[in-house]
From TrEMBL:
Family: Belongs to the catalase family. HPII subfamily.
Compositional bias (Basic and acidic residues): 1-20
Domain of life (superkingdom): Bacteria
Coiled coil: none
Function statement: Decomposes hydrogen peroxide into water and oxygen; serves to protect cells from the toxic effects of hydrogen peroxide.
Enzyme Commission number(s): 1.11.1.6
Protein name: Catalase
One GO molecular-function entry: catalase activity
Record carries keyword Iron: yes
Renumbered residue ranges of the record's region Disordered: 1-31
Domain Catalase core: 25-413
Length: 530
């Protein structure tokens, strides 16, 4: 680690930490005489409004809750560091990937998606895997999940999707994502969810531990090198302990016996010095090969099978320090797909484009205004120098007369850097303004079938059992029936098996083009099982 990196890590460690060691004071630093008895008229009389200490103490308490995240509300986080194995500067200008001499501090938050902050850890759900790299070029967030695909192709559907998977609005049941009518209603009506639903019904949705969970950036992103050359990239995290899941019966028992099972495991393993590790891997596709696939690289419901593009290991992530304060750090951390550094850029994936809007927007509400990047866990270790002023909870005292660009009077930020700046990838785009998805996004079943074919017999048994269990909780018969009929497009045998366990009519074999595997050669391929 260089001196600068050490310095960055230490700055991160020390940012605004306090031990509250002195005698008790008010928020304005006045020493308190008594914090157990309110100021009152006589020993048995009414409490006085004049008791500023009691009012301040209770008022602070009254305001101690902030909105929980609209999704991924329940999570656990830890600090650590990332070190690349080799210099990737032929591919990307990102400094944190420029060689094994560069170690970058990180904060990682794992989460479930649908339940509220107090829900159980071991529910059947997707898990978030969000990594904040505090790089010398600014913060880079890789905001991923433990499954390599997503439910929908276009972010405009996200509010509908989330309304369908969250606890139902009339009775706020259930906290888990998978067992209710609204989810299956949405799934049956939106076949693009099919591939991800296979993952959700698999054991991947009940990880044994955060330490044994894979992570995926999901979208195709873009590496850009200093010459401006772009390369498509998919990100993978592979746990060094291997990928392990619970079985459903265990998961359900643990929900009752220890709802904090995954959170506790992460905390305790770090306290014991058994630091969890992951390897970062990349799948790289040169720009000129963009259209070499029978799916669209911009479609987040698809993997790139490893048989077609192998995963290249490029670095190692270690988590070695628990947060000091859950609320200050894990709860207030703000990840955002648009937090990128030079060398990492977006693609036109319509899901990613929506995310690039959504995270900042929601954080402005969740974290109370526009200065949340000044919260210690969000603060970059690189210098921040901008003309942003004012807003709720401004913590910096900016000196000087000006806060605009350009200016010649001093005080604001009058200059732009010559190098190290973020330059957006130059991409030529043209077309009519329309609301229509490309034909290349229309195959919703081939990769779902690929996933099914990659399963061992026992994994397939668990999948069928999960479909039966979860769909069995769905009360509306027509909704069950439609979801099973949709499965028949993946594999008629699977749909019949599920239908039998549910007591619904087995669907007809749809046959036809949609039932034909578009990539038979890839029957065993699956990025996640590599
Ligand atoms: C939160 C992943 C799609 C909106 C999160 C978090 C993760 C995540 C890991 C938790 C971050 C944390 O720990 O604080 C993903 C992945 C997606 C996806 C992998 C698809 C590939 C979307 C889409 C939208 C969206 C399409 C909106 C259009 C949000 C919002 C939050 C969130 C609003 C809460 C953020 C906060 O309050 O800080 N997502 N998400 N996500 N996501 Fe996504």
């Amino acid at each position: 680690m260089t001196d600068r990196e050490q310095d960055a890590k230490e700055r991160l460690l020390e940012q605004d930490r306090t031990d509250s060691r002195g005698p008790l004071t008010t928020d304005t630093g006045v020493r308190v005489e008594d914090t157990d008895n309110s100021l009152s008229v006589g020993e048995r009389g009414p409490t006085l409004l004049e008791d500023f200490h009691a009012r301040e103490k209770i008022t602070h308490f009254d305001h101690e809750r902030i909105p929980e995240r609209v999704v991924h509300a329940r999570g656990a986080g830890a600090y650590g560091h990332f070190t690349p194995y080799e210099d990737l500067s032929d591919l990307t200008a990102a400094h944190f990937l420029s060689g094994p001499d560069v170690t970058t501090p990180v904060f990682v938050r794992f989460s479930t998606v649908a339940g509220s902050r107090g829900s159980a850890d071991t529910v059947r759900d997707v898990r978030g895997f969000a990594v904040k790299f505090y790089t010398e070029q600014g913060n880079y967030d890789l905001v991923g999940n433990n499954m390599p695909v997503f439910f929908i192709q276009d972010g405009i559907k996200f509010p509908d999707f989330v309304h369908a998977v969250k606890p139902e609005p009339h009775n706020e049941i259930p906290q888990a994502q998978s067992a209710h009518d609204t989810l299956w209603d949405f799934v049956g009506l939106q076949p693009e969810t099919t591939h991800m639903i296979m993952w959700l019904m698999s054991d991947r949705a009940i990880p044994r531990s955060y330490r044994t969970m894979q992570g995926f950036g999901v979208h195709t992103f873009r590496f850009v090198n200093t010459q401006g050359r772009g390369t498509f990239v998919k990100f993978h995290w592979k746990p060094l302990l291997g990928t392990h899941s619970l079985v459903w019966d265990e998961a359900q028992r643990i929900q009752g016996k220890d709802p904090d099972f995954n959170r506790r495991d992460l905390w305790e393993s770090i306290e014991r010095g058994q630091y969890p590790e992951w390897e970062l891997g990349v799948q790289l596709v040169p720009e000129e090969n963009e259209h070499d696939f029978d799916f669209d690289l911009l479609d987040a419901t698809k993997i790139i099978p490893e048989e077609q593009v192998p995963v290249r290991p490029v670095g190692r992530l270690v988590l070695d320090r628990n947060p000091d304060n859950f609320f200050a750090e894990t709860e207030q951390v703000a990840f955002h797909t648009a937090n990128v550094v030079p060398g990492i850029d977006f693609t036109n994936d319509p899901l990613l484009q929506a995310r690039n809007f959504s995270y900042l927007d929601t954080q402005l509400l969740r974290l109370g205004g526009s200065n949340f990047q000044q919260i210690p866990v969000n603060r970059p270790v690189s210098e921040v120098s901008n003309n942003q002023r004012d807003g709720f909870a401004q913590h910096r005292v900016h000196r000087g007369q000006t806060s605009y660009f350009p200016n010649s009077l001093g005080g604001g930020c009058p200059a732009l850097a010559d190098e190290g700046v973020y330059r957006h990838y130059t991409e030529k785009v043209e077309g009519a303004k329309i609301r229509k998805r490309a034909e290349s996004f229309k195959d919703h079943y081939s990769q779902a079938r690929l996933f099914l074919n990659s399963l061992a017999d026992w994994e397939r048994e668990h999948l069928v059992a999960a479909f039966r269990f979860e769909l069995g909780k769905c009360e509306e018969l027509a909704v069950r029936q439609r979801a099973v009929a949709n499965l028949a497009h993946v594999d008629h045998g699977l749909a019949v098996e599920v239908a039998e366990g549910l007591g619904v009519e087995p669907p007809e074999d749809p046959g036809g083009a949609r039932h034909t595997d578009t990539s038979p050669a890839l029957s065993q391929a699956n990025t996640a099982f590599g």
